[in-house]
Automatic annotation (TrEMBL):
Domain AB hydrolase-1 positions: 27-259
Gene3D superfamilies given in the database record: alpha/beta hydrolase (3.40.50.1820)
One GO cellular component term noted in the UniProt record for this chain: membrane
InterPro entries: AB_hydrolase_1 (IPR000073), AB_hydrolase_fold (IPR029058), AB_hydrolase_sf (IPR050266), Epox_hydrolase-like (IPR000639)
A Pfam family: Abhydrolase_1
Keyword list, A-Z: Hydrolase
Protein name: Alpha/beta hydrolase
UniProt key word Hydrolase: yes
PANTHER family according to UniProt: HYDROLASE, PUTATIVE (AFU_ORTHOLOGUE AFUA_2G14860)-RELATED, MONOACYLGLYCEROL LIPASE
An example Gene Ontology biological process: acylglycerol catabolic process
Entry keyword Lyase: no
Single GO MF descriptor: monoacylglycerol lipase activity
Length: 284
């Protein structure tokens, strides 16, 4: 059974898609990157839903989720919002899959809500970014600052940005262009992004990352220009129970560029962890 709907969680309208698989005990929660949405997983979801229960969330203020100014757009609050959604759906345990910025929110879930998140799959996850500098944070209080944010993000153009995040430029088509252009159609998202500049607390520190005990699979594009492989290697070092896989001839949009490979790697990772858990519990 599949459905898409909005649900009010922690004071904001949260859009999610739920693909239920009655034969699977495992749930994957998909979290997209900056200026993206569930759209970025459209090639991966059809593969994953054959093996798992899949829930894909539009993180506020992106996609079809709310864009109100009263919500706190910090990573820790976004992580708590995702967990609250899962609890409201009666899901007590899940595996979290995060791409780019979504990976940072996934790691916040693994750190702050370990009783709910069993495993993490990080796809070209952001890492080690500091909080916005004070002058930029103070500028966010200037009236109409959201129009500057809109201009800054739109200046280079969606097509040029896509060329920067995919290895094979021939895969850029009208569907991709429209899907990633759609956030620029309304001003509300840029007002909310102004709040995100103000609220974003910076990525998890090395000390915080080393407190994460959940098994993590890191999947990276060899030619990622947005979050270079060196970030993946550093995360692999700081996350005590992690494995790093680097995909050749691949850029930053791993879910778009290599969905079949990502699907197979996730299957292998979850199967291996289930076997390890069963061995530890004396089931095998």
């Amino acid at each position: 059974m599949e459905f898409a709907r909005n649900k009010t969680v922690r004071g904001i309208d949260l859009y999610y898609e739920h693909h239920q698989n009655s034969e699977s005990k495992e749930t994957l929660v998909l979290l997209h990157g900056f200026l993206s949405s569930t759209f970025s997983f459209r090639h991966l979801i059809p593969l994953l839903k054959e093996d798992y229960n899949v829930i894909s969330v539009d993180l506020p203020p992106f996609g079809k989720s709310g864009k109100i100014s009263s919500f706190k757009y910090s990573y820790q609050n976004l992580a708590a919002t995702v967990v609250e959604l899962m609890k409201s759906l009666g899901i007590r345990e899940f595996n979290v899959v995060g791409h780019s910025m979504g990976g940072q929110i996934a790691m916040n879930i693994l750190l702050h809500h370990p009783e709910y998140a069993k495993k993490g799959i990080l796809l070209c996850s952001s890492g080690y970014l500091k909080r916005a500098k004070l002058p930029l944070v103070l500028s966010s209080y200037i009236p109409y600052f959201h129009l500057y944010v809109k201009f800054h993000l739109a200046r280079s153009g969606v097509k040029q940005n896509l060329q920067n995040v995919v290895y094979d430029h021939s895969m850029i088509n009208d569907e991709m262009l429209y899907g990633y252009l759609s956030p620029f159609f309304e001003d509300d998202i840029f007002k909310a992004l102004t709040m995100m500049i103000r609220h974003r607390e910076g990525d998890l520190s090395t000390e915080e990352l080393r407190k994460i005990e959940a098994p993590c699979l890191l999947i990276w594009g060899e030619h990622d220009k947005v979050v270079p492989v060196r970030i993946g290697r550093r995360l692999n070092k700081d996350l005590r129970n992690s494995e790093l896989i680097i995909l050749k001839e691949t850029g930053h949009l791993v879910p778009e560029e290599r969905p079949e490979d990502v699907h197979q790697l996730i299957n292998r990772f979850i199967a291996a962890e289930e076997k390890a858990e069963a061995t530890a519990n004396g089931s095998l």
